């Protein structure tokens, strides 16, 4: 009876399995690379001013845009604090990504802010010649006229502008990072 013999040297396969097991045993380097990727992805999101699914963020209200002095063309950016406080933290087998700014959740999910009624001193400039009082507030230092004013309660509506999360492309990129750790000699990118 004729036969065939097949000899298999499993050294290469065993090396790949051992490297993958080592990556799973200590996922911190992989999670750090994913955290760095998320920082870059969210920088791009703030540049494009769009949600993870590509939907543009709702435009600023005309009233806010009128009084916004810096970064007038940027939504969710006045001084850049929200974007610049994004951080990631890697624990044993966990990656946590986000911001410690409380208003980050308000911008992401939207909501309302109830402002209570209050009385306060308001400062104005009074024209010395005509006695007319301007209708713009000024700092106490620049004021020559002040009076007590009462402001009624009101609500500010913040629209949802989802900014935190991953897109489908981001998910593929993150999977690629994981694959490089799990199959380091596979020849993938």
Shape: elongated
How many helical elements?
6
Number of strands: 6
Instruction: Give helix and strand order, one letter per element, not per position.
Output: HHHHEEHEEEEH
- Give the termini distance in whole angstroms: 48 Å
In what order do the strands lie side by side in the largest sheet?
A: 1-2
Largest sheet: 2 strands, antiparallel
Integer average pLDDT = 86
The secondary structure category is alpha+beta
pLDDT < 50 runs, ≥5 residues: none
Helix % is 25-40%
Strand content: 15-25%
How big is the Rg? 28 Å
What do these coordinates show?
With 189 residues, the chain is α+β, with helices and mostly antiparallel strands. It has a domain at 11-109 and 162-182. 36% of the residues lie in helices and 17% in strands. The chain contains 6 helices and 6 strands. The protein has helices at residues 11-25, 28-48, 62-67, 81-84, 103-109, 168-182; strands at residues 87-90, 95-98, 111-115, 118-124, 145-151, 154-158. The strands form 3 sheets. It has a two-stranded antiparallel ribbon. Strands 3-6 form a two-stranded antiparallel ribbon. α2 packs antiparallel against α6. It is elongated and about 95 Å long.
Ordered list of secondary-structure elements with their pairings:
Layout: H1 11-25, H2 28-48, H3 62-67, H4 81-84, E1 87-90, E2 95-98, H5 103-109, E3 111-115, E4 118-124, E5 145-151, E6 154-158, H6 168-182
Antiparallel strand pairs: 1-2, 3-6, 4-5
Helix pairs in contact: 2-6
């Amino acid at each position: 009876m004729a036969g065939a013999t097949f000899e298999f040297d499993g050294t290469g396969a065993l090396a790949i399995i051992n490297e993958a097991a080592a990556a799973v045993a200590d996922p911190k380097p992989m999670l750090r690379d994913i955290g760095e990727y998320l920082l870059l992805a969210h920088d791009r999101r703030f540049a494009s001013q769009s949600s993870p699914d590509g939907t543009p963020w709702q435009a600023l209200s005309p009233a806010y845009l009128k009084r916004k002095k810096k970064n007038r063309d940027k939504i969710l950016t006045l001084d850049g604090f929200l974007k610049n406080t994004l951080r990631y933290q890697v624990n044993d087998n966990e990656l946590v990504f986000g911001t410690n700014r409380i208003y980050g959740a308000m911008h992401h999910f939207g909501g309302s802010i109830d402002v209570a009624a209050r009385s306060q001193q308001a400062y104005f400039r009074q024209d010395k010649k005509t006695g007319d009082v301007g209708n713009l507030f000024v700092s106490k230092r620049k004021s020559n006229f002040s009076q007590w004013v009462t402001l009624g309660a009101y609500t500010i509506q913040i629209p949802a502008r989802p900014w935190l999360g991953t897109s489908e492309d981001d998910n593929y990129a993150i999977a690629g990072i994981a694959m490089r750790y799990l199959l380091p000699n596979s020849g993938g990118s």
